[in-house]
Amino acid sequence: MMTLDQFSVRQIKGVSAPKEQELHAFGVQTVADLLDYFPFRYEDYRIRELTDVKEGEKVTVLGHVRGVPVLQRYGKSKSRLTCKVEVGHWLVTAVWFNRHFLQDQLVPGREIMLTGKWEQQRLQITVSDSEFPGSGNAAKSGTLQPVYSVGGSITQPWMRKTVRQALTQYGAMIEEVLPHELVQQHELMARRDAVHRIHLPDDTKEGQAARKRLVYEELFLFQLKLQAYRALNRKRNDGIAHRIESETIRQFAAKLPFELTDAQKKVVNEILTDMRRPSCMNRLLQGDVGSGKTVVAAIALYAAVKSGHQGALMVPTEILADQHMRSLQRLYADMGIEVGLLTGSLTERKRRDVLAGLQMGMIDIVVGTHALIQDDVFFRSLGLVVVDEQHRFGVNQRSVLRRKGMNPDVLTMTATPIPRTMAITAFGDMDVSTIRERPHGRKPIKTYWVKHSMMERVLAFIRKEVSKGRQAYIICPLIEESEKLDVQNAIDLYVQTQQSFPDLQIGLLHGRLSASEKESVMAAFGANDTQVLVATTVVEVGVDVPNATLMIIMDAERFGLSQLHQLRGRVGRGEHQSHCILVADPKSETGRERMKVMTDTDDGFEVARRDLELRGPGDFFGTKQSGLPEFRLADMVADYEVLELARDDAAALTERDDFWSNESYVRVRNVLQKDQIFQGEQLD
Ligand code: ADP
Ligand code: MG
Fold first, then answer.
1. pTM for this model (two decimals)
2. In this protein, which residues make up the domain named Helicase C-terminal (predicted)?
């Protein structure tokens, strides 16, 4: 039997070859595509009583023509047509612009539907749409009309007509895709009805039920891909079953300079359990800034090495790579573990040494940036990949690195917490470990928002902290478009700061410095040789100098919330009370709102939630690489309950053994087949 995706839109009556070409531009090729081209909102032509309508509101009313129409013409094509119409108890004046051809149809006594703006003062309706009920082409009266995204010669009326025609010709062929039991269990409208109703809703309730059904379908099919991927990955058993002695790990933990928090212990256990399994780990580690994710990664990498393999830690910047390499070397001191560094700025000779070391297995753990995923990098036996601050990395880059090993385990760490609905969507194929508590004895960071005019007092505050032996960051914003200007900004601020504190050592860090220059600036700040570090956002993620207790962010309104929270996370990493000062005179409401969120809370989970609220899901990650899909109907925030439901259903279904064989799941399996889920690479 033919299915709707086998019929070209040309087969719909009224679709010409040129129109077909234009539809292609909207991604509409087949009848199935057209029927799935849902309206994004509705225009309300339902009849109302004028007594319920407020001044200036748009309304649709039903009335009778009274009196004779009056036509005034201006120039060739412009005209103004007025006519008295009786609507309920009112005699109103209907006004049309440039609709002179209606004059002959306005016969006294005739019933008429008017849509337009109601001006009560003048008892007047400025008509945008009118129809004569019972005249045969009164399509809109009393209905909700779909509004499609259209363009070119494809107009709204044409689209409405064509979709209606498609429904007439092919509507009966629309088939259910969801498993029968789910449709029943959630009392979902059948697909055929839902598609009809979403295009031609007869009242809001029907439209809502149709939407609910289609939103569920969209989220379910999306989740099905993620969950199928996850289930297959678990079944495949082609990863590395690491041999890890618990005692080895315990001994390592005992040598740490601090005791692990309960949250850290819990996630270490989750990770080690995964690593011991023969399937590939694909786990997301999320926790707030400063919650101690790095040491968790260090333990996992240690475990990989102890079980005879190599580990790789991939980070977004050279500063971080450098810092992580040092801290790993410190943690693994005297344990015979070789840590290497691979970044873009290595000399050719050093680079060749590192590559050879990795290939021959002399290097156990390599820390690096993008340089890690170049073609000429080979490992003897890559067993674990840790991707730090993952939102900086493209989805593809992750999978490239992954393929370098023999299906290594992958641990992804996020810089800041991700709201739950985001996590389910963007990382739904992963298992999630969450660190909720911060190390003991940490004091909440005190955050203030001040105007630029208070800079004197801010400087005095720096002076005070430094006199207690602490250190401070001053951040100036980076505008991607003009690095040159930013660097100039940073240099100016640096000079000013030097003038304000002639007796202190001031450091300067920005993106234009060479790798070794950055390294020495960071080393000086780390050793408290410089007390104040003027920097661009290059210090945004991961930088760890526990003695720094003051974070000053200039022009803070120019940063997003998660970025502000990240920057703030550079302090509060030791036992001293830390402060964050946002210097900003925001002009916009959202700018003020962001400052308020920052001063309200220093909990990253809460910041993330409010950030999502303020920005909406589309902008949350700020980059295309986030892996977030564009949903046609679903709204990740508004529909989050459906999202969770769909996720649970998809997970339960794909975990069943008969999912892959049972006849009744053929249709959903076909959906997966179409997306080549079985080839495994699709979603990585
Ligand atoms: P993040 O989660 O932001 O990556 P880090 O791993 O950089 O956090 O840890 C922040 C700081 O806390 C580091 O200086 C680290 O050494 C320290 N730290 C980590 N775990 C603990 C702990 N259990 N007790 C005390 N300090 C800790
Ligand atoms: Mg970190």
1. 0.74
2. 454-613
